[in-house]
Amino acid sequence: MEIRDTASFLKYYESVRRRTLAVAACVPEDRVEWSPGDGRFSPGDLLRHIAATERWIWAENVLGLPSRYAGHGSDLAEGKSGVLDYLHSMQDETARIIAGLSNDQLKAKVATVGGVEMRAWKWLRLMIEHEIHHRGQLYSVLGQMGVAAPPLYGLTEPEVEALSE
By the 8 A CB rule, do 30 and 42 touch? Predict the structure, then answer.
């Protein structure tokens, strides 16, 4: 999928964000920093990581600037409401930056955090893949906690099977 303009990309980004927020809303207040093991991300870590990377890596890089990612620790936001506020804030800033890009800027090559040069639209496409990857991890962590999460597209797997021929 080539991203040809910011308006269509931002519409897609918003739909991805809504699905991530629906899962994030399921995190119990007292389990925001629960981790499934040493060196594993907690739900708070996952959400802060999504927020911080989108703002301080992707948004910076599409502007032609170096990454300014400083981690995903609880020093950025604490508690469920703090983490969700941080996620909203960073994603809103990222969306504003993307909205300001011209079509020529989308086509221009930018240097990624890893030093690879690619078209800005391709780098933004990877931002979406990154969020979806970590949302999947959030589903897994919630499953390990025994916490129900919303079906991704409105149906559970058993419902899909029952509706299939």
Answer: no
Q: Which residues pair with 69 in a beta bridge?
A: none
Asked if 101 contacts 62 with a C-beta cutoff of 8 angstroms, the reply is: yes
| Amino acid found at 45 | D
**pTM of the predicted protein model:** 0.94
Task: Write the CATH number for 114.
Answer: 1.20.120.450
Establish if 47 belongs to a structural domain: yes
Q: DSSP alpha helices (H): ranges in the chain?
A: 6-24, 43-53, 59-62, 79-99, 103-107, 120-145, 157-163
150 within 8 A of 22, measured Cβ to Cβ: yes
Whether 163 is covered by a domain: the verdict is no
Q: Could you report the per-residue pLDDT of 90-149, keeping only the tens digit for each? A: 999 999 999 999 999 999 999 999 999 999 999 999 999 999 999 999 999 999 999 999
User: Would you say residue 64 lies in a domain?
Assistant: yes
What the block records as the tokens of 102 is: 């011209």
Number of domains in the chain: 1
Residue 161 lies in a domain: no
For residues 117 and 109, the answer to whether their CB atoms sit within 8 Å is yes
Instruction: Look up the domain containing 99 and give its range.
Output: 6-31+39-151
> Hey, what are 147's tokens?
């916490």
